[in-house]
C-alpha cells in the first residue's frame, strides 16, 4: 500500500486497527512512534547498484492501556512527516515488534490494516545461476541415458 492510499482510507474510519495475517491484532493501545522515509542504497549479488525508497511506520505497544490512536491523529502525523521530511508517495513498510522486529507490507481489508509478511529474494537470479524452476526429469529418460538403478551413476 502506498502512502496516498492510507491517506485516502483514514478519513472514513472510526478507529485504526492493525492485524497480522494470522488473525492476531496489534494491541489497540499501540503507538505510531515513527513515520519516515527509508532509503536503501545497495549493490546486489549480480553487481547492480539499486536504490529502494519506502515510507516507514513503526508500531509500538507500551503499558499505557488507555491510549487509542484515532484516524485523524495518524493523518496529522503523516501530513507533518510529508511537510517536514518531504515524504514521497512510496510503498509503506511497517515495523512491529514480535519475537524480534518484523518488517511488513501493508494492506487494508475494509476494516483493518493488515500486516503482510515479507520475504527475501535474489534480485539477480539470472546472474547467480539460480534456476527459475526445478527442472522436471522423467526417470525413464535417465535410464535411456545409461543411468539405471544399481548402476552407480545416481
Verbal overview:
- The chain has 154 residues and is an alpha/beta fold.
- It has four helices and six strands; from the N terminus they run αβββαβββαα.
- The protein has one domain.
- Strands 1-6-5-4-3-2 form a six-stranded mixed sheet, covered by helices on one side.
- The longest helix has 15 residues.
Gap between N and C termini? 49 Å
Helix content: 10-25%
Tell me the number of helical segments per DSSP (H or I, 4 or more residues long).
4
Helix-strand pattern: HEEEHEEEHH
Uncertain runs with pLDDT below 50, 5 residues or more?
Answer: none
Question: How much strand?
Answer: 25-35%
Strand order of the largest sheet: 1-6-5-4-3-2
The largest β sheet comes out as: 6 strands, mixed
How many structural domains does the protein architecture include?
A: 1
Radius of gyration: 23 Å
Q: How many strand units?
A: 6
Instruction: Indicate the mean pLDDT.
Output: 90
Oligomeric description of these chains? single chain
Class from secondary-structure proportions: alpha/beta
Described by the principal axes of the CA atoms, the overall outline is: elongated
Keywords:
alpha/beta; 4 helices; 154 residues; 6-stranded mixed beta sheet; 6 strands; elongated
How are the SSEs ordered, and which strands pair?
Blueprint: H1 3-9, E1 18-20, E2 30-43, E3 49-61, H2 71-85, E4 92-97, E5 101-108, E6 113-117, H3 125-128, H4 139-144
